[in-house]
Predict the structure.
Amino acid sequence: MLKVAIVGCGRVADDHAEQIQRIKGCEIVGVCDQEPLMARQLYERFPVRQYFGSVTDLLSEARPDVVHITTPPQTHFSIAEMCLEAGCHVYVEKPFTLCAEDGHRLLSLAAERGLKITVGHNLQFSHVARRMRAIVQSGFLGGLPVHMESYFCYELRDAGYARALLADGGHWVRRLPGKLLHNVISHGIAPISEFLTGSTPRVMAHGFVSPLLKRMGEAEIVDELRVVICEDERTTAYFTFSSQMRPSLHQFRIYGPENGLVLDQDQETLTKLHGKRLVSYAEKFIPPANLARQYLGNLATNMKTFLARDFHLKAGMKHLIESFYRSILDGAPEPISHREILLTARIMDDIFAQLTGQQQSDIPCKMLLNSASRL
């Protein structure tokens, strides 16, 4: 039986506790929050053995095998370091750390201790994302990716979390180096990182406060971001984050030298784009018919998954957690590679450095970001 603990008992912790319950062979032996009432409410609503107000007490008394860290990002590094030093495997919610330097330190510590560590990029493990990965691995693209496009939109007008952020000048998200972007864009950057082959892509970022937020008196929350990512004469990528564009997209597109794929997270659809053009008017009829057939196939697949009772909103989180636990028990590689985790953090560092316009020495962790000087 794998003994599991959760540190940080807010809303995200509920998602973790719900998915852990779905996985056989594990038990939540403790939950922890610096506000004991938060830990107690999670303890009372889920099958949890104990609750704590101190990470030290949790580690020494509950003695978990693996710890899920669902606290604000500012605390990820210190808590993860403490858990690794105590001999625990660690699952860290996104973003992994505040900067790539801290991420590198955690990954190195885990490797030194022979422990597993991963990050909560759960959208990469949804049903449709796993289907896409299998098709890419089958060689459908015809070679390495030539270009990718990632869209991640965020609703600021209706979400309770967003309203709290805009109303509170001291909100913890405002204290992140990238503010709102820092807390959410890893979901859109990580799919790009998975298919890049190098470790130091060039990053060109442009961000701004939308007219809507400006009319609301907001001047510091960047909610529109456009990013170009380039590997030397190989793969390119565009990343778009927006709170204003409609429809609100959560899509990933990947194009190879022969064919392409379009993944839609909201609709759980995956469509194949064949690179060869048809002759004459056939191009106007056969491709639309093929797309219609594919959408009907997606509908059938989604219906089967729904009837199998595995079509819940956090199915990707469950699969990621289960895969991580399997890597611990079987000694297999983690579901997300260290290279991918670190590359996502480096790209985010570059974006925030360019958006703030600060000198490299002013960036948190004094990370040596050199992409701006290469452009």
